[in-house]
Amino acid sequence: MGEEGGGIVSVTGGAGGIEARYEDIETLARLFDDTGDDMRTYAWDDKGIAANGDLVESSILSPGTFASAESAVLGATIGPGGVAFEAVDLEVDALAMRANVTILRGVDDLQRQAFEALDYLGGRLLGTVLPSLLLIGGVGALLTAARNPLLAKPALRPPRPDSGR
């Protein structure tokens, strides 16, 4: 990995935690893709071993051994379960990882837009209704105060000393 592959980082929580994980998945996908490319190249280069001049010449001396060796080389390079198939498997995994990150980012964006819309609508509704509610509440408070006998009577004052009471 070193300088070429870039290290996979670990993030635990925080405001950018999810985004950092997406970047890690993309880094891993790049690593899988690059490794798959390398493995596919090795498979195509190494299958030529089966056509190596010395190996082909040995087929005259030992046809059975030659057939076994050729079969083993071809099986290990381009046969089912060989390096070429494993390379394709890595590249399909890389493609799936990239697709998942794209989908998850899209979902995150839709979620952010939905929250912004709800926040806007909530603020708009509150800004429209709140003045009316305050006005209705104020009128209601005045009406309640006017009907309450304790609040409707003038405040009792202590008697004046000169009034004779």
Mean pLDDT: 79
Count of β-strands: 0
- Ends apart, CA distance between termini: 104 Å
| Succession of helices and strands | HHHHHH
Q: State the helicity in percent bands.
A: over 70%
Helices, by number, come to 6
Sheet with the most strands, sense and barrel status? none
Low-confidence stretches: none
**Radius of gyration, whole Å:** 40 Å
In terms of DSSP E residues, the strand content is: under 5%
Task: Write a brief structural summary.
With 165 residues, the protein is mainly alpha-helical. The chain contains 6 helices and no strands. The model has no long low-confidence stretch (mean pLDDT 79).
Report on this model:
The chain is mostly helical. The protein is 77% helix and 0% strand. It contains 6 helices and no strands. The protein has helices spanning 2-5, 17-46, 53-61, 63-77, 83-147, 149-152. The chain starts with a helix and ends in a 13-residue tail after the last helix.
Compile the SSE list and pairings.
Elements: H1 2-5, H2 17-46, H3 53-61, H4 63-77, H5 83-147, H6 149-152
Helix pairs in contact: 2-5, 3-4
Which features characterize this protein?
single chain; 165 residues; mainly alpha
